[in-house]
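[Meeting: bench + compute handoff]

Bench side (C.D.) handed over the final construct sequence. Compute side (W.E.) agreed to return the predicted structure before the next meeting so the bench team could plan truncations. Sequence as handed over:
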Amino acid sequence: MNAMSTAVEIAPARAPSAGAQAAGGALWTVLFSLLNKVTAFGGQIALAWFLLPADMGLATIALSIAGIVSLVTGTNLKTLLIQRQDVLEENTSEVFWLSLTMNCAAALLLAALAPLAGHWFNEPRLVPIILILAAAIPFMALPTIYASRLCRGLKFRALAQIQFGEGLVRNAGAVMLAALGVGASSLVWPQLAGAICVAAACRVAAGGIPIGRPHPRCWPALLAPALWLMMLAFVTALQTSGIIFVIGLMRDPVAAGFYAWGFALSSQAIFLLGTNLQGVFFPVFSKLNHDSHRQNQAFDKTFQALMLALAPVCALQIVLARPVIALLFHQRWLPAAPVVQWLSFGMITQPLSILGASLLLARGQYRLLALQTAAATIVIMAAAAAGGRFGRETEIARAAGIALFLTNIAAGWVACRELKYSARHFFRKIAPPVFTVLPLVLAGGLVTGLTSHEPPLVCITVTTGLLLVLYGLGVWFLAPHWAGQFLARFKFLGS
């Protein structure tokens, strides 16, 4: 009896499975992303009061240039550390110095491009804005090895808290500076403050990591597998920022400002939630590389959950963009409403791209992911340029949204081919959740039209209530077990 009691007492606690850790991490990420969504949305509303469209356009043009320069930054080496445990153990110190060196080089390059950009866009005000962004780049390299340790340890709660803190610093800082009359620079100064805060927070959360003296002779061996990651970072930055670059060249800062503000509103939930969750899916898929069956199951389940979570968001943004913007800003920002609608349409299929990228990163398919993302970037930018050829921000958003919808499906197909899925299996999985959005949008559009003569607040409230009811019925019909599983995950979160 005593021996048995002793055995029970000394038995080690059972470690949570990767799936349980992923579920808990996803829930923490969702919760903090929702908080970040609230602050970011409030920040965008406040900025629209304090800034002019031209100010928004100048800042986003500068951010797009900085995004393109991200080709030569080393912060993407974090992915290599997460995917390859041997690199993390043997070369952490060298990765730190290499990342810092590459980011400093990128900062110098961006600073050198600042006067050229001011001349190219015929906007001298761009120069100081770009210089501020250049000052932030070296700080972005500091958390690389510490964030990698947190990801490898599946410390998603700490990562979610850090990301929320960074978003709070950036959004609150931008609003405060805009209210003080700083102008376009109010959007970039918080980038520097946010980078410093993230570096400090990651160091505290991850603990100390020994960093020796640099040995540059070891760097080429680290750069070889990271070149495709750098290419991936470049085309990803080009995909998100290149359209602003195109608008700035083809049109004017006002059109760029309308598009950028509309993009920020439409992407708050999708990209903020999706990108943060990608930080959960990638390390979890990496841990399942040895078990393809469980990895396939994880891919299917996470796609369904993510799609069902984001579908009503996209539908509400499409239906309510115009009445909400008209209510809050009247005619000042109303030209951005079609931008929100068309980009929200494109983002309906965004979960496919998010999960596809996570899977390919986990399997070390950097080249395939970089080439697929480059092809998608070319298609989206070509569509945006065609829209700009025949119109302004509305036509650009329409073309880019349709291209985004299709390229996301293509990204999901590439990932499913990696999982050896058939075309029938692929479309059977994606069709039901994707097409649940269409009746929501049609019903919402009908209700909005019928209540258009009512006060805007009544129209918004009635439409939102109806869409949420229809969404609940749709989830019950398509995936009745999903709600129960979601509630069960909350029990794990509280344990």
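W.E. noted at the follow-up: The chain has one domain: 17-494. C.D. will use this when planning the next construct.
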